[in-house]
Structures are given as structure tokens and as C-alpha cells.
Design brief:
Blueprint (H helix, E strand, L loop, with lengths): L11 E4 L2 E4 L2 H5 L2 E4 L31 E2 L7 E19 L7 E6 L10 E5 L13 E18 L7 E9 L3 E5 L2 E2 L4 E5 L8 E5 L11 E5 L3 E2 L8 E6 L2 E6 L8 E8 L5 E11 L3 E2 L11 E5 L2 E3 L13 E5 L8 E2 L4 E5 L4 E8 L9 E8 L2 E4 L6 E9 L2 E8 L8 E9 L2 E2 L6 E15 L4 E3 L4 E10 L3 E5 L4 E2 L2 E4 L8 E8 L9 E10 L4 E11 L2 E10 L7 E8 L9 E6 L6 E3 L7 E10 L2 E2 L10 E4 L10
Parallel strand pairs: 12-19, 25-33, 34-40
Antiparallel strand pairs: 1-2, 3-5, 4-9, 5-8, 5-9, 6-7, 6-8, 10-11, 10-13, 13-17, 14-15, 14-18, 16-17, 18-19, 20-22, 21-23, 24-26, 26-30, 27-28, 27-31, 29-30, 31-32, 31-33, 33-35, 35-38, 36-37, 36-39, 39-40, 41-42, 42-45, 43-44, 43-46, 46-47, 46-48
């Protein structure tokens, strides 16, 4: 079977039904170091010379192997000269000298590399097994590393290894039309497509390859999108991640990195730089420095050229003549003014025109309404005038004979002459102050319930915002009056007073509401009790304090009147809609009784109210005899 090629990184020759590395050092330029050397026959290089067998081709006697002297925890390290994603390490130890051998992979030389990540422990086939048998150590996840360490964990013993090989997972290449552009800079003109896609591939493919871990990134932070609707996007095709650059823009500039993430989280990447050639662009010309005479205008390079783009050609300034319209007016007021309502006020605006022009300037006045500068209507109350202040200089005045609230807002002016109109002036904010006016008290007809709470709210229109005071059964400040655990004594008139700094005393605004408290009837009386016959009486009752709510039911109670208060009270209930007198039947003839009454409405009976009603004694007749007490 000699000569059969096996899968893996290096060329391997099948011997004794197993694969052994063939000249690993020659194929990768690797070197080997050991903790010690047993003798010149057993040098470290023999661990990767691709010749693990003796002359018979069957058994190993150590002459083609590397071996250390007897020591504690002897080790051997293979330097691969660059990093690989190592997925499997294969070794051929000999006899008991391969017992307790651990494989480490990584990039650190701390503790001679023996502190790197441990892939696993090499299988042990017995102390008398001297055949050329590969012993595989599979890393649970591929390990990114340059060094492969074999360490035998033992006391005062030899480590003997006849061959070391390994498998790795990937390499990355960036190709532009099959040309390697790693670390180079490529260029494209703005708004043009790059000539062809740039490929990022993994070689060799590796058994654990996953395209989801192969990703283009822009400036190391932004994942390139996969949607072709973007100017720069990536598409995975045939195990290659293709980078497309369409209609290149300034934002396309930068470093593009192809990154592959191994299953253990390790990352390998390669990059190239894209320069987008951008042409210089001029800004628009500025307005003329004078809106009413000769001046200059200028422009700047709104965007400088980048890379190999074209520079701007031309002047940065030139003369201009804006000719006829007046110079933009200047408002005579500060940014904001405040007027009292009904006062006499004025606003001023000054503008000039080229001294060589003839004719006067007039002014127009505007207020911003719904986002639009609308002309202010003039009448007997609001007038406009213009004065000549000097050569080419005029002042306009907007006069208010009596300021109204509608005059507030952002007011601007514009100058006109026979040739045209100027630009608008800056805005003057006009604020109108006025005394408060009570808008409303809510609720307007408040009705409270005994034992519950009610809130009265007062609102007023005033500038500045008014202060509020409540007067009545209870006093408070603020627009809200909270009345809690209402009692009938809280009933009455409540007045809200609103005032601000505009003549606070004389112009204070007032409004009032009448608060009604409802509750169970508070006082009911027995008006009369008349014997009707020997077992019935007629009873008339009334509730002069019905809790501001109509009585719905009367409860008449009576008891034998024996001069004590120990007798039980009997009761009868009558609807308020029934006609009076109410008939109380079932009484004993010629017997003294006392009567009392209470009542209910929509709010029920007043708890304990019976104790407060009057007690009327009466004696029923025997035969025709009637006693009324």
C-alpha cells in the first residue's frame, strides 16, 4: 500500500495500514525542540522527518525516532512557523515511552508551550507495542496555534516520538480576478462599479467549514449587508464570499476585512483597502454682500477631492450687482417686546437703499400665522408711516392706538421701493399682557355626597398666568380646591379669585358656584299619631332635613310605653309615595305606645339617626275610647 495519499495537511504514505507523515519539515519548514536529547542518534528533527520505520518496515526500534533523557515530565515542541487551525494531532510514540502523553496547541511559549490549550491525551497501546501505529488526538474544537507540544506526565522517564503530523482547518485568501490583493489598496471612481467582485475563500476547505462564519466587514466594525439593494454587499457562491461594490460613494471608502470564525471562537482574517476617487465640488454662490448696491459673492469647496479625484477649477469670489431692491431692513426693537392690553405702542423698522437711487422707501408689516408671514391689516387702530432719516435711509413705524391680544406674535417688516422688495427683517416677538378672566369653574353645578370627596377646578385666561385663591366654606390657593369627607356644613358658595401682575387688585377676576351636599335624611319628626280604632293608629311624619334628596322610604317604629326604655321597638316601613297618614296596625287596645320615625333616600338611612328623632307617646282606645298623648 506504499504510496497511497491520505487526507490531511501533509503528504502521508500508508504503512502497516496507517498513515504516517512524509517529510513534515520539508513541506512546512517546521522545526522541533525537546526538553533534552537522549543521544545524537535520537535528535529532535527525527520526530518530523517522515521516516518512522526501521529497515524491516514493520517494527520500530527507535533509531529513526526522537527521544529525551530520563527526566520529570519530558516534552517535545513542533514550531509550525505560522498559525493554523489545528483540528487533529497524530503521533507515533514507541512502547511504554508513549504512556501518559498529552498534546497542547497554541501560540504561547510560557512554560515552553506546555501551558497552551490541551487537545487531549494520546491513546496508549501497551508497553511492548513497537509497531508503527498512528495515535490520533482530536481537538474537540480546532485550536488556533503555531506550536504543538507533546508532554509526557511522568517521573524520571523518557519521551520517545517517531513521528508527528497534524490536520488543520483553513486558510483565507482575498482575490481580485484571481490576483491576491491582501494588504493592498484598490481604487474606483465615485458613482462607478468596481470592475468585478472580490472573492474571499478558505483553503483548504476543511471538514468543519461553515459559510455562516465567513464574513466581509467594513472598517472592522460593520458587517457588509447581503442585500443587493445596497451599494456594497456580499453574496456567498460556491464556498466563496463575494464582495460587490456598486456605484461607489465616499461612505464606501475604508478597510474591508474578510473574517472567518472557527468553531472555538478563534478568528482569522485578511484585509485590503478601497479608495474611492472623489472629485472636488463647489458650493452654491453666496448671496451678494449688498442687497442694494454693488458687492461680492463667494463660494467654497463644499467637498475636497479625495485620492485621485479631480480638483475644483475656478474663482472663490467675484463681483456682483444686486441693483434696485432696498437693503434688508433692521427691526428697531430687541428680539422680544411686551405690551399691556389697551396701551398705545409702536414698532419701528429701518432700511436703506443705494444712494444713487431716487424715490422713497415704504414698509410692509407681517405677522407669522400658521407658519406663513401674512400682511397685517391696517385700519384706524393699526397704522403705518415712513420717515426719511438721512441719505438713502428710512424708518417705518407700525402704530397701535389700543393694543389687543390679537396683536401678539412674531412680527417682521419688509422694505419696498419702485424697483422691488427687500428680504424680510428678523422677527420681533410681541407679547401682550392682560388681566385674567375666569373661563370656567368645573363642575359648574357641584353636588357632593356626605362623607365623600369633591374637587373644584378653576381656570382663567390671563397673561402672565394668573394666581388663584378660593374663598368660601374652606379657603385654599391654586386652581384646584379639594374638599374631603364632606359634611352638610360644607354646603354653600365657593368663590374663585384669579389675579396677575396686571393691576392685580382692580382687575382681579372672580367667579362662584353653589355647592350642594346630599346625604341621608338628617332629621325626621312624627307630626301626629291618632287612634283609628282599638288596634290601629294613623301616623303623619315629615323630614324637614332630607339631605337635599327626596325621601324614598319611611321607617316608623313603636314600643310599649311602660315608663322604662327596656321594651323592644317594632317597626313598619312605608314608601314615600304612599299617602299619609300611614296606618300602623296590630296594636293592643287601651295600651300606651311611643312612636318615632326615620327615613331614607338615594343615599340610604343615616346611621344612628333614630336616636335623634322625636318620640311621640300615644294610648290606643278600648272600644271607642281614644287617648292621644
Amino acid at each position: 500500500m506504499s504510496g497511497q495519499k491520505c487526507t490531511g495537511l501533509s503528504t502521508e504514505i500508508c504503512i502497516v495500514t496507517s498513515c504516517m507523515a512524509n517529510n513534515l519539515a520539508a513541506s512546512l519548514g517546521a522545526t522541533v525542540t525537546m526538553s533534552s536529547v537522549y543521544s545524537p542518534v535520537f535528535v529532535a528533527a527525527k520526530a518530523i522527518d517522515g521516516n518512522p520505520k526501521d529497515v524491516t518496515g514493520q517494527r520500530l526500534f527507535g533509531y529513526d525516532c526522537a527521544a529525551t533523557t530520563k527526566s520529570d515530565d519530558p516534552w517535545l515542541r513542533v514550531d509550525l512557523q505560522k498559525e493554523y487551525f489545528v483540528s487533529r494531532v497524530r503521533i507515533i510514540p514507541i512502547g511504554d515511552r508513549g504512556e501518559n502523553v498529552y498534546v497542547h496547541v497554541g501560540n504561547s511559549l510560557t512554560n515552553n508551550g506546555n501551558d497552551n490549550r490541551k487537545c487531549g491525551k494520546a491513546p496508549y497501546n501497551g508497553s511492548n507495542n513497537f509497531n508503527a501505529i498512528w495515535r490520533d488526538v482530536n481537538c474537540s474544537l480546532p485550536v488556533w496555534g503555531r506550536y504543538i507540544n507533546l508532554q509526557r506526565v511522568v517521573t524520571n522517564h523518557i519521551l520517545m516520538v517517531c513521528e508527528v503530523a497534524f490536520d488543520y482547518e483553513l486558510e483565507i485568501a482575498i482575490l481580485d480576478n484571481n490576483m491576491n490583493i491582501e494588504g493592498t489598496t484598490v481604487a474606483v471612481n465615485e458613482n462607478q462599479d468596481y470592475s468585478n467582485p472580490i472573492d474571499c475563500g478558505v483553503s483548504p476547505d476543511g471538514t468543519n467549514f461553515n459559510n455562516a462564519r465567513l464574513q466581509w466587514m467594513h472598517n472592522m466594525t460593520i458587517d457588509v449587508p447581503s442585500s443587493s439593494a445596497q451599494s456594497v454587499y456580499q453574496v456567498y457562491e460556491n464556498r466563496v464570499q463575494k464582495l460587490y461594490i456598486k456605484l461607489a460613494s465616499v461612505s464606501s471608502n475604508g478597510l474591508y476585512t474578510c473574517k472567518y470564525t472557527a468553531t472555538d471562537g478563534s478568528i482569522v482574517s485578511k484585509s485590503f483597502t478601497l479608495n474611492v476617487n472623489v472629485n472636488c465640488e463647489w458650493s452654491s454662490w453666496s448671496d451678494c454682500t449688498s442687497s442694494c448696491s454693488f458687492g461680492t459673492r463667494s463660494r467654497t469647496r463644499a467637498r475636497l477631492k479625495q485620492h485621485n479625484g479631480m480638483d475644483c477649477v475656478g474663482l472663490t469670489s467675484e463681483n456682483c450687482d444686486s441693483k434696485q431692491p432696498p437693503c434688508a431692513p433692521t427691526a428697531g426693537q430687541s428680539v422680544g417686546v411686551s405690551f399691556d392690553e389697551s396701551s398705545v405702542q409702536e414698532l419701528s423698522c429701518t432700511a436703506s437703499q443705494y444712494s444713487g437711487q431716487s424715490g422713497d422707501i415704504t414698509f410692509g408689516w407681517y405677522r407669522k400665522e400658521n407658519g406663513i408671514d401674512s400682511a397685517i391689516a391696517l385700519d384706524s387702530r393699526v397704522t403705518n408711516s415712513t420717515n426719511l432719516d438721512g441719505v438713502g435711509r428710512f424708518t417705518g413705524k407700525l402704530k397701535f392706538a389700543s393694543v389687543k391680544r390679537s396683536d401678539r406674535g412674531l412680527i417682521k417688516c419688509r422694505a419696498f421701493n419702485k424697483y422691488g422688495a427687500s428680504n424680510m427683517s428678523s422677527a420681533t416677538s410681541v407679547d401682550v399682557k392682560y388681566a385674567p378672566e375666569i373661563v370656567k369653574i368645573r363642575p359648574s353645578n357641584p353636588v357632593g355626597v356626605k362623607g365623600q370627596n369633591i374637587t373644584l377646578n378653576c381656570s382663567a385666561d390671563g397673561n402672565p398666568s394668573p394666581d388663584y385663591e378660593w374663598r368660601g366654606g374652606k379657603s385654599a390657593t391654586g386652581s384646584t380646591l379639594e374638599l374631603t369627607s364632606l359634611e352638610f356644613r360644607d354646603e354653600g358658595t365657593y368663590r374663585c379669585v384669579a389675579r396677575n401682575t396686571i393691576e392685580a387688585g382692580a382687575k382681579a377676576s372672580r367667579a362662584s358656584v353653589q355647592l350642594i351636599i346630599e346625604g341621608p335624611p338628617q332629621r325626621c319628626v312624627v307630626l301626629s299619631v291618632k287612634s283609628y280604632n282599638d288596634s290601629e293608629v294613623n301616623v303623619k311624619v315629615n323630614c324637614p332635613e332630607n339631605g337635599n334628596s327626596s325621601v324614598t322610604e319611611y321607617r316608623i317604629e313603636y314600643q310599649l310605653d311602660d315608663g322604662t326604655s327596656n321594651m323592644l321597638w317594632e317597626q313598619r316601613e312605608f314608601s314615600a309615595t304612599d299617602s299619609q297618614p300611614f296606618v300602623v296596625a296590630g296594636l293592643s287596645p287601651f295600651t300606651n305606645y311611643s312612636f318615632r320615625v326615620t327615613a331614607s333616600n338615594t343615599h340610604g338611612y343615616e346611621p344612628g339617626s333614630l336616636a335623634a328623632v322625636n318620640v311621640v307617646p300615644v294610648t290606643t282606645p278600648e272600644g271607642c275610647k281614644v287617648f292621644l298623648i
